[in-house]
Design brief:
Elements (H helix, E strand, L loop, with lengths): L8 H9 L8 E3 L2 H5 L7 H13 L10 H10 L5 H31 L3 H26 L7 H7 L2 E3 L2 H28 L12 H21 L8 H20 L3 H6 L4 H16 L5 E2 L5 H23 L1 H23 L4 E2 L13
Parallel strand pairs: 1-2
Antiparallel strand pairs: 3-4
Bound molecules: fe (ii) ion (2 copies).
Length: 357
Amino acid sequence: MSQPTFATPDDAAAHAEASTLLSPRFYTTDFAAMDRIDVSPLRAEWDAMLQEYEGDNNHDHFQRTPAFADEVARLAPTWSPELRAEFMAFLVSSLTSEFSGCVLYNEIQKNVSNPDVKRLMRYMARDESRHAGFLNQSLKDFGLGVDLGNLKRNKAYTYFKPKYIFYATYLSEKIGYARYITIFRQLERHPELRFHPIFRWFERWCNDEFRHGESFALILRANPSLLSGVNTLWIRFFQLAVYATMYVRDHQRPQLNAAMGFDPTAYDREVIRITRDISTQVFPVTLDIDHPAFFAGLDRLLRAAQGFERGRERGGVMGRLAQAGWALAGVAGFARLYVLAPRRRPLPAQVRMAPSW
Ligand SMILES: [Fe+2]
Ligand SMILES: [Fe+2]
């Protein structure tokens, strides 16, 4: 699939601002409803978590060492143009996701008075701002830094009710953890494949994401109505949307995966398995990823997305017809996956989990 070449900062900004089915989104929500969130049923676990944020064990982590720039200068000339383009796309989309969290958590923090929600959002915005800044520095090495003020102003915002924010951000924090730790472990085993120093930062980094996910897990578990009845249908929907989006997007970056010694299918299977295992802390229904129809269905969605893209590149009436056909195939494929019987498990008494992957 076509990948921008990232020749100028405008290319990076356009990639960050793009609103496609696959690009990371910015969110806004109902702040008054956020203000009414009650975490008191899990007070002890909540307070222990806020203590961890307060302790801020990563306060010194997101700083560049002099060796960082040297390593970039040594390794970048060894990249193929395709790897460079895919890696820049990875940095921009990671930056956009991190900054999306930063903007949302910061807006909630500014618009609520509930002290529990306000404190949590302040800490998470602090972490995401560091993550976004650190990624942006790596883009600046290539003259591709994204103006985050402009991005905040220009990007389209999607409105989600608080409960959808909780399902979506819980999953994106946990899948973010799973993605970063899987890359970190792979490059720990194969340091010769570490083609950029930023991957060395991923271990402590992903612990922030894990904790952000824990925060949403506590909010959801403190409000059991969000985890039962018709809401379980939404929970299944969000799991499938998050997994399918990642699956299609990662297959657009074959060189990036190959450089790290990954096959995108195997990498995504591992990431989905980790995320599914973690999400049993909060979701009473999880997708049956071990069913043969599950990954076969994701492959069907991938083919539909690739067909749609070919139609777009072709253009004209035939191109548009092809796009429409593949879009229908995509919707049908998604629906087939959605109706696969999920796994149902009772929720564990203890909500918090350790990042042990
Ligand atoms: Fe983050
Ligand atoms: Fe996060």
